[in-house]
């Protein structure tokens, strides 16, 4: 009995020493002593996507809407793109080109002036105009859909009068191209942060200047 008590005391003493021993992390994962819970976000997102806990289209849609203006507006009873609309669509095209795996839909809307049937047709034509413009910027037509028009049924401003904010198209992420439905299998960070990685590479002129001047940092 005395032997067992001595062994228990020794084990407790050793455990106490282990907590203060600087070498005690030798048997733990590398970096475990530094991890405050902020590491591994890419792995976490991969897990959430693959287990169905997080919808990747929602993630991409949120990012698209935060990075660029997803909405363009139109004049009354018109499908013509003005200068502001073209500028917005050029930025949309730049973003879309960075993610060749992503599929988009363009939804057309109108204000509440006029009949519902006519407005649905007008909204769809507006969506088709935007798709045509994005296609002209080098976006593959198979990745763009103008398949739905909400017409006058989803106004931004509830008014029966002409309202420019209601006359709009909205570009949204709809998913991944059908040829590669499992693209996010282990590649979440690679796709979502592709432009972040690219931004770490300085332009050619900057590289040449740094080499010539010996600049560093």
What characteristic shape results from the CA principal axes? elongated
CATH architecture of the domain at 57-196: 2-Layer Sandwich
Structural class: alpha+beta
Query: Which fold name fills CATH's third level, the topology of the domain at 57-196?
Result: 60s Ribosomal Protein L30, Chain: A
Q: How does the major sheet shape up? A: 4 strands, mixed
Q: Into which percentage range does the β-strand content fall?
A: 5-15%
Whole-number mean pLDDT: 73
**Assembly state:** single chain
What's the number of extended β-strand segments? 4
End-to-end gap: 66 Å
Which segments are poorly predicted (pLDDT under 50) over 5 or more consecutive residues?
A: 206-217
| Lateral arrangement of strands in the main beta sheet | 1-4-2-3
Number of helices: 8
Helix content: 40-55%
The CATH class of the domain at 57-196 turns out to be Alpha Beta
SSE run: HHHEHEHEEHHH
Q: CATH H level of the domain at 57-196: which superfamily?
A: OmpA-like domain
Radius of gyration: 28 Å
Features:
single chain, 217 residues, alpha+beta, 60s Ribosomal Protein L30, Chain: A, 4-stranded mixed sheet, 8 helices, elongated, disordered C terminus
Walkthrough of the structure:
By secondary structure, this protein is an alpha+beta fold. The chain has a domain at about 55-195: OmpA-like domain (60s Ribosomal Protein L30, Chain: A, 2-Layer Sandwich). Helix content is about 45%, strand content about 15%. It has eight helices and four strands; from the N terminus they run H-H-H-E-H-E-H-E-E-H-H-H. It has helices spanning about 1-20, 40-50, 55-65, 85-100, 115-135, 190, 195-200, 205-215, and strands spanning about 70-75, 100-110, 145-150, 170-175. A four-stranded mixed beta sheet has the order 1-4-2-3. Helix 5 links the parallel strand 2 and strand 3 (about 145-150). The chain is elongated, with a radius of gyration of 28 Å.
